[in-house]
Amino acid sequence: MTSVIARSAKSVLHHHHIKHCFSAATRIGVKQCANVRPSVLPQTSITGNIAFVPASLFGTKFSVMGKPKVVFVLGPPGSGKGTQCEKIVKEFGYTHLSAGDLLREERNREGSEYGALIEDNIKNGRIVPVEITCALLENAMNKTIEATGNDRFLIDGFPRNEDNLQGWTKKMADKVEQQFVLFFECSEQQCTDRCLKRGESSGRSDDNAESLKKRFNTYINDTVAIIKHYEELQLVKKIDASAGPDAVFEHVKAIFGEQK
What we know:
Layout: E1 26-27, E2 45-47, E3 50-52, H1 61-65, E4 69-74, H2 81-92, E5 95-98, H3 99-108, H4 115-123, H5 130-148, E6 152-156, H6 162-171, E7 177-185, H7 188-202, H8 209-232, E8 236-240, H9 245-257
Helix pairs in contact: 2-9, 3-4, 5-6
């Protein structure tokens, strides 16, 4: 079986072509550490399906306390990002922030004005507006640092498209130290089988055949270009995720063992 990334050669966009615009809402995937809950988002406005979050939402605590160290974790749906992040947390002490989990938690929060918008994008395999995701990520990092002092983060499932990358660069890039991008590569068929099996017990609205097809299309059309962008910057650590979790983690450990 060919890998998902191999299918995307024609769709890859180089980083110097990245657009300065806010695209229509598209889908993303975040797992927050158990003791950290995202803050209620402040009042924002939504025009069409694009959300505008005030600049005041993005705090300045990072510059006061030092820059947090960030590892982006990317790969197709079902490549084992969440499983490996759990192992990294136990072995190396990082805090795991899953973009998708943060968004699902905000979607389920009583009174959230973004709940319906987030659910529509998740269900249809699109990526949620970057302003909402960046706000949730920064709030979670601030709360973690305040509560535990831990300043090392795995950000799982982000950035997933050009808009995500532009939004992160504009609001967050100068506030963090980007260590590298951990990329799990796996065939579409194997990832699909894993997700369908997970869907038997996960209760996730996107672990079904219809949503998975849309999620893979989004991944191929949007996320692969982001991986190529970081490859050009020599920041990507690629891992074959087709093996079992323990075997994959042996390769993960070698990468993190090299970090200071």
